[in-house]
Structure formats: structure tokens, C-alpha cells
Design goal:
The protein is an alpha+beta fold. The chain has 6 helices and 14 strands. Strands 1-2-3-14-7-4 form a 6-stranded mixed sheet. A hairpin with a 2-residue loop joins β11 and β12.
Length: about 280
């Protein structure tokens, strides 16, 4: 069965802002919540040369490490965070949970991790992207945040459901209280899978919007809902990274290319909890 594309977003849930020298976007619903810092970073505002121009945040794409370090420092300082961590993402379901200042937050990137969780104020969780989704989760009751790297392989493994369950087990989070946001990423306009019968489970074939093209945004939304997150608590950016060349890196559009990122953190100076309906 071929379904129509997801409902068009009449008003974008993303708000443009200038934070120091960095242009960023923030989710409208998340911006209303006290006690958290978040930013959808663009490819602009850094120092890396082409083809990584300019705010490349990945050490693994061929850019000079000094450029990446300076770009990351710009992000940390612009967001006012004590530290920003990232990991070696592999399209899996392993989680790094940081609940103690003794945890290896400042160490070199740990490999093989796609879920980041913390309840430590001032510690930014960064997911690097060039078409994959960064999915933000915020628990306003227990003051915890998560950032998940979710490509189609992550959807196959239900990495979003795994992240919700990790939050419930480690932080006591109730799924129905969580707020979620799905970053700019590969849209149904460009998410072509010529071998989808081999790559995607048959249950995913109903997300096909036209032959070989799939709506991964709606798939992630449905997987979050299946894990207990309320639909009205889920924001979808609705922007395709392959289409928006001026804003975002895209692996499907350009190879080689850099990585932009999405960051979430608890505010260094925490506010009180937000009551959940």
C-alpha cells in the first residue's frame, strides 16, 4: 500500500536565532520549556575549508582536527555550556549514561554508541549529522535529557524505543511525560531506498510515499508513540537536509562532506521542574 506523505507543516516548529557568531535553530516547543538548552546547528559559522565548509563538527570525515576542535569550542562557548560531548556513532542501540561528574565526559570519543543520556546540568549532548536524525528527549519531571542518533538502520533496531526505555530505567522517566523533537534530516522527498525489500522490514513498507521513497520522519514519530511518548509532545522539524544545501551537510548530496550537529543540555543554572499534563 502506498500512503500519502505526512501532513504538511504549515508553520515550521523551528525558530531561527543568532547565538554569538553561530546561526542556530531551536524547536518552538522546547524553547518554551525552562531549564534546558538546545540548538540545531547549521553548517555555517565555523572555520573549516571546503568540502567541510564551515562548521564541521566531526573528526572522522577528513577535516583537520584543529579545525574541528575550534569549531566545537565555538559551539560550547556560544551555548554557554561547561562541556559538550559526542561519541563514535555506528547506527546501533548502545547508550552512554552520564549521571556522575566522575563519568568520562571529557575523554576521547567513545565508540559504538548512538544514545546519550544525562541528568547533569551544563553537560551538552551532541549528535553529529549529515542526513540522519538527531532525536531529542527531555524529561521535565526528573530533569534528564537524551540525544539519539537515528538513521534508517536505527529505525530498524528501534533505537528510539530503546532510548525511552533507558530513560525510564535509569532516571525513572514516564514516557508519557517526555518531550521529543526530531531534527532536520533526510525527508520523504529524498529518502530513496532502491533495495528497500532487503533493507527495511516489511512493516516499514507502509511508510512508502511513492515508489522507493519513504517517510522516515513519520516512522520515527510512530516509534516514539509506540514507546509511550504522546503524539502532541513530538515535534518534527520537517526540513530535508539534502534539499537545504545552504543550511546543512548531506552525505547523500555531497561526498565527502562535513557533519553538523544537534545539541541538548540541562541548563547550567537549573530551573524548577515543569508539571506534565
Amino acid at each position: 500500500m502506498i500512503l500519502e506523505p505526512a501532513e504538511p507543516l504549515v508553520t515550521s516548529p523551528l525558530l531561527p536565532e543568532q547565538v554569538g557568531d553561530l546561526p542556530v535553530f531551536r524547536f518552538r516547543e522546547f524553547a518554551r520549556l525552562p531549564g534546558i538548552v538546545h540548538a540545531v546547528l547549521t553548517r555555517r559559522g565555523g572555520i573549516s575549508p571546503p568540502p567541510f565548509e564551515s562548521l564541521n563538527l566531526s573528526f572522522s570525515v577528513g577535516d583537520h582536527p584543529d579545525h574541528v576542535r575550534r569549531n566545537r569550542r565555538r559551539v560550547r562557548e556560544a551555548l554557554g555550556l561547561e562541556e559538550v560531548i559526542s561519541v563514535g556513532q555506528v547506527h546501533g542501540g548502545n547508550a552512554l549514561v552520564l549521571t556522575s561528574r566522575e563519568a568520562p565526559a571529557g575523554a576521547a570519543e567513545l565508540q559504538g554508541i548512538d544514545i546519550l543520556i544525562t541528568n547533569l546540568p551544563g553537560l551538552g549532548l551532541m549528535i553529529k549529522q549529515a542526513d540522519c536524525q538527531a532525536v531529542l528527549l527531555y524529561d521535565p519531571e526528573h530533569r534528564a535529557v537524551a540525544n539519539i542518533h537515528c538513521g534508517w538502520r536505527g529505525n530498524v533496531q528501534d533505537v528510539l524505543g530503546q532510548a525511552v526505555r533507558h530513560l525510564s530505567r535509569v532516571c525513572g522517566s514516564r514516557p508519557e511525560a517526555l518531550r521529543a523533537a526530531i531534527s532536520p534530516s533526510l525527508g520523504p522527498c529524498c529518502a530513496q531506498f532502491t533495495n528497500y525489500r532487503k533493507e527495511l522490514p516489511e512493516a516499514f513498507w507502509t511508510y512508502q510515499v511513492r515508489p522507493e521513497y519513504f517517510d522516515l520522519w513519520r516512522l520515527s514519530r510512530d516509534q516514539l508513540q509506540a514507546a509511550g511518548v504522546r503524539r502532541e509532545h513530538i515535534s518534527i522539524a520537517g526540513w530535508c537536509t539534502r534539499c537545504r544545501e545552504g543550511d546543512f551537510f548531506s552525505y547523500r548530496r555531497d561526498r565527502p562532506t562535513g557533519r553538523n550537529a544537534t545539541v541538548i543540555a540541562l541548563s547550567p543554572t537549573p530551573s524548577g521542574p515543569v508539571a506534565s499534563p
